[in-house]
């Protein structure tokens, strides 16, 4: 008799229970290869079940390759035991509460607009989904709405067919880089870490370029990734002269400029700077996202590519069934039609403007702003030792604040990058108080020492 127990009170069919039990006996080595099993009739009698239960279990295990039947001889084990390594000790997981993140990418969403959010998803639930695979470029109605949105907010005059919906900025970057010929990608330093990681994952070398100036020589470069409206993470706006020089350099080198326009709508002082792509549509690939205006979890964005590259990318997406999810696209269409994006952006802009002043008041005595105050975060230049001390004090108080050096690859800038979008006012005040506690006890930073790593110690003589 097989050492098997069947439980009729479980919500699992008896045949499935029996096949799982015999499978475990074989995989564990209790039943070795070549072992003859009881007949289905005998096993059914031993277990007190109908013969159909044992026949079903044996047939399943024969189909999976664990058992084999020999004509006129019975049923035998056909597989060796599975070699499963002994599990090692599980690492201990800290039981402390998770840190509240003051990151650069989590937005503040006006809670007064929650009704529109729910209404959009109700509309999704009543809409008819596509019969087959989605158009890889996105819903035609959404592309039309996005074209109108970009014309009104970013100065891009587009046909809807020129817009393609993506699963976010890094998805769009991955798609367009995969469609380009081989060659390195120039990325701002310090810069968006996901952009450099995406290029490397595609096997492309990453060339660092100092983020405080625009590149004016792209010789040997296939693409240059930039954030001209609000450099990430320094906050610098690329001046008009540098924009023109960058495009001239791209034309001379036959390189593509990739514009990540991730949060240009959140300017407090003046109207948003027009997109770089508005100056040259055939030399600039434009990327946008809903992560900063709607929600990162929506995982939606858009891209506007030069015509030939657009066609190449969409052919590849069609071949691989690569498309943003239909429910999220349909919800975004409802939000655009309802004016949701305009409302949450206006409200968030006011909140960010007020919070940026509070951050500046707290950190101003200890550091130098890396760029103009805009968006949902600000970066502050200060010596690395001071930044680490402030970061550690914030962590002790339950907050996670990033060091500027974490965004650098070869650059030597140091300081803090403080996000203020994804927190409450009370959390922001508590985090700033902790940062100040970590920075107290010294005078204001002198202009010459702020934001530079201390020189490395001299190597010992051999």
Automatic annotation (TrEMBL):
Cross-referenced Gene3D superfamilies: Type I PLP-dependent aspartate aminotransferase-like (Major domain), Winged helix-like DNA-binding domain superfamily/Winged helix DNA-binding domain
Pfam families: Aminotran_1_2, GntR
Keyword Transferase listed: yes
PROSITE patterns the UniProt entry points to: HTH_GNTR (PS50949)
Domain HTH gntR-type residues, every copy: 12-80
Keyword DNA-binding: yes
UniProt keyword list: Aminotransferase, DNA-binding, Pyridoxal phosphate, Transcription, Transcription regulation, Transferase
GO molecular function, one term: DNA-binding transcription factor activity
Region Disordered, annotated ranges: 442-462
Family designation: In the C-terminal section; belongs to the class-I pyridoxal-phosphate-dependent aminotransferase family.
Protein's UniProt name: Aminotransferase class I/II-fold pyridoxal phosphate-dependent enzyme
